[in-house]
Amino acid sequence: MRDNENNNDLNTADEDLLNDITNSLANQIRQEYEQSAESENTFEPIEEEAIPKKKRFPRWLKVLTIIFSVIMVLTIGGMYVLSSYLDRINYTDWSDTEQLAEEFDKDDVSGLDTVDPNSIDLNSSDTLRTDKDVINVLLVGEEAINDGGSRGRTDSMMIATINTSQKSLKLTSIMRDLYVAIPGYSDNKLNAAYHNGGMPLLKQTIENNFDIELDGSVLVNFSGFEQIIDRLGGVEITLSSSEASYLNRTNYISNPRYRNVIAGKQTLNGNQALGYSRIRYVKTETERDDFGRTSRQRTVLNAIFDKYKSKSLPELVTILYDILPLVTTDIDKSTIMDYMTTVVTLGVTELETMRIPVDNAYSNSSVRGMSVLLPNSLQDNINALHTFIFGTDESTYTETNGVNGTTDNTSSTNTNGTSSTTTDGVSTQP
Fold first, then answer.
1. What is the pLDDT of residues 45-92, one digit of tens each?
2. What is the pLDDT at residue 64?
3. b/e per residue, 356-366, with b = 16+ CB within 10 A?
């Protein structure tokens, strides 16, 4: 009986609140009408009886009104919080980037075929492929160790892809020793582009060599990479006995106190994970040298993605607040919000990965005294990249630099298709 009385009291209170709102609106309308009518000399008083009388509102309407109000508050509040968080990112257009004199590595080229640089014909495109359903963002990890704080070279270069038509997230590693045409400079290793002209030149170099438009770029240095992983609580990585032994006896794990990793699956902190992602001289199951390094980098990013999926929303909010200042980008805040909304609505649970150059489309060669990955056919790599990112290598280009767009229906299939192994640089990580 007491519960019924309480419910009746609540119903009455709800009805009184809604009726008060209704009467207030009615009075406001009446006052505005009278003021307007007086100004036009057409005043006709509104009878008091015209004001709606107190009436009972259905319970479903009250519930719907309350739910709608809560949703509006949460939505507006959430957007405000997200906007204030994104203010913590370092935004730049890199317009003040200094141009540096080019340099060429001095490598051990014994056993490699020497190729005359004048005999090499590299692709350089004035037309870039775009797709309204595809977003491509360049992710760059800067290696500035022993550079005295000056701009270093890029240890990691990846294209992160959001494909809304395929509802997929993709990650393409581009090998740093790939020999490419660098606008305004001599042909060189890809990672020299960042050293020579920073992010703008690196972005232009990748676009021109691979006929693909990049929608923005993101830079994280080694220190930031470590902090991001630590803030996530570490990442789960499986080490081989050779990898664990190598990490424990070298300075790849820069802090000696963390040189205690073991063979098998374990959680690595930021310093350990960074060391793992930089290993070159220990073979993975299928790859060695820089191919093994980029494979490990994709493994670490997959582990970060898995850790992100395991976090609750409140945890992600607090983590986001700490890691955003570690990121530098030329993507504006409103666009980032759009990208984040797109990723969330995709509902993706896996990250597809690939590596350029693909197998059988390059050779290890000596050019200008450097050990490089020389494309046998850059077009084969372009076709493979476009197939992976866009779903087809049929080329529809947009006009850039005043050159008319063209359509090239040449079709080429990746050497090993889209295998789930990493033999040809293509894999899908669950």
1. 555 555 555 555 566 555 665 566 555 544 554 555 566 777 888 999
2. 62
3. bbbbebbeebb
Give the side-chain half-sphere CA count within 13 A for 410. Answer: 8
Nearest CA to 23 out of 62, 54, 66, 45 is that of: 54
The confidence band for 411, taking pLDDT boundaries of 50, 70 and 90, is very low
Q: Considering the entire predicted model, what is its pTM?
A: 0.72
Query: For 153-156, which contacts have Cβ atoms below 8 Å and span 24 or more sequence positions?
Result: 153/191, 153/192, 153/194, 153/195, 154/190, 154/191, 154/193, 154/194, 154/202, 155/191, 155/222, 155/278, 156/277, 156/294, 156/297
Q: Is the dihedral of CA 235, 240, 241, 246 positive or negative?
A: negative
Residues written for the chain: 430
Strand partners, 185: none
Interval 283-311 mean pLDDT: 84
Tokens of 231: 């803030």
**Cβ burial, residue 284 (10 Å; 0-12/13-18/19+):** middle
For the segment 134-144, the average pLDDT, to the nearest whole number, is 88
Integer Cα distance of 57 and 221 in angstroms: 60
Q: What average pLDDT does the segment 193-201 reach?
A: 94
CA–CA separation, 139 and 157 (whole Å): 6
Using CA atoms, how far residue 293 sits from 22, 81, 82, 360, in Å, is: 68, 38, 35, 19
Q: Which residue type, as a one-letter code, is found at position 333?
A: K
Torsion of Cα atoms, 93 then 95 then 101 then 106, to 10°: 0
Residue 256 preceded by cis peptide, ω within 30: no
Give the model's pLDDT for residue 19: 56
| End-to-end Cα separation, the chain, in angstroms | 57
Could you tell me which of 182, 116, 177 has the C-alpha nearest to residue 368? 116
Q: What angle do CA 417, 420, 424 make, to 5 degrees?
A: 50
